[in-house]
Design brief:
heterodimer; A: mainly alpha; 2 domains; 6 helices; 9% strand; B: mainly beta; outer membrane lipoprotein receptor (LolB), chain A; Phosphorylase Kinase, domain 1; eleven-stranded antiparallel beta sheet; seven-stranded antiparallel beta sheet
Amino acid sequence: MTLPASQLQGDDSLSALIDGELDDDTAQRLLRRLGTDAHERDRFAQYCAIGDALRGLPDGDPGFTARVMAALEHEATVLAPLRRQRDRRPALWLAAATVAAISWGLWHSDPRQPLPSPPLASAPMLVPAVDATAYVAAHQDFAQAVMAMPEMQFTRVSLNGDGR
Amino acid sequence: MTPRRFVLSARTAPRRFTCLVVLALLPLPAAADYLPRHEAAALLQRMADASRRLAYEGVFVVQSGGEMQTLAISNRPIGGAKESRLAAMDGVQREVRCTQTGSLSLVSEGGQLRMERRLNSRHFPDLLPQDATPLANWYGVRLGEFARVAGLDCRQVELTPRDGFRWGHVLCAEKDSALPLKAVMVNERGKPLMQYAFAEIRLGSAPRMNTAPTLPEVPDSARPVVGDSVLVKQLPPGFSRVTAVRRTLPNRPGEVEHWVFSDGLTHVSLFLENSPRPVETVRGQSKQGMIHLLTRQVGPLRATILGDAPWATVEAIAMNLEARGGER
């Protein structure tokens, strides 16, 4: 179910955006606002982090957490979004609409289409080291380093579409 | 402690993906002190040109995590190109020589000299691409504080990524020539991941090079790829494929395909090799978080994606690989 803009205000609209419950026009309008309003962007990052925390999800992207934590440091009050009671169906269209809107509205110099990546589930389970020495050595031709092999840590992950 | 295994459910995965994509692609906040793009592009190009067109020799230090290395460098312009030589001053005896005809790595270990052709002539302070102007599309550029490096005055130039697909950089450009005297790669919190700095440098002299005008004859271990074996459906903004070769890897039998994607400053390698058994999908990360790696199965091939780039970049490339129909 998608909701028109008239039924949404403030906090509701961000929450509905994350849930994929906005109609296309409203979603695109909100995404453009996120691109220009640092305060709204910070709130969006907080909502994402709070949602993950409530569901007990691990931090799959260190950069994401860092950005959120940086935003939190500047916020005196954290508002937790109310959980909607009705059934929510995954809306994959939102991923495409999200990136399309950003690409169209914010990346004028690059008309690329969205990155249609399926979600990645991270399993924080250490696995035996992959022998990456040869790959790192070959990559050195392009990397900045003229250094020794870095110490690496490996985890097993689940990837939608594996084995295609 | 028993490790917990987390799996995203069908309900939560789209929500999380929305968060990650939106946050990765949002531009940096408008700031009055970022240079206009045309000025940023001109400054970046000036720094890029200086590292090739100037004659200089000196010693610089590379530091990453707990590792540190000192290298001697000499550079002189030859026509529109450069001729440079780097020599490691500690650890294994290693040299990199770059001429108009290519780049060579010489490693002396156990009394034996090993020579290998490099696919690229990139090294400090020549880190920016030949055409540096497009970088202004992907990085906000602003002038920072004045500083002093190796006895010379310089001014910091901060490159802040406009999205989450690249690390930030802080360069210190010599006040007259714009030659980068120092370069620091930083993560999204501004924490240094790797840094270079000249300890001493002599500008303007034409150093006497020990290199021969042409490189020794070393068989080229790489040849161009004919026909792509996988399809990359989409790349992160600003990235394009800059190299695709078949090559052997050090101490590994057989050939692999080595592709490189870059925005000019960030480089991500993709290695493709036949895989008799399906491989497990594994994510790797260097201790400092600078290098990320992902290995996965793509059709009959094992794909390893590796780069000194944020996880989002490696992940985006890995997840957009698709096997082409039929065997190679």
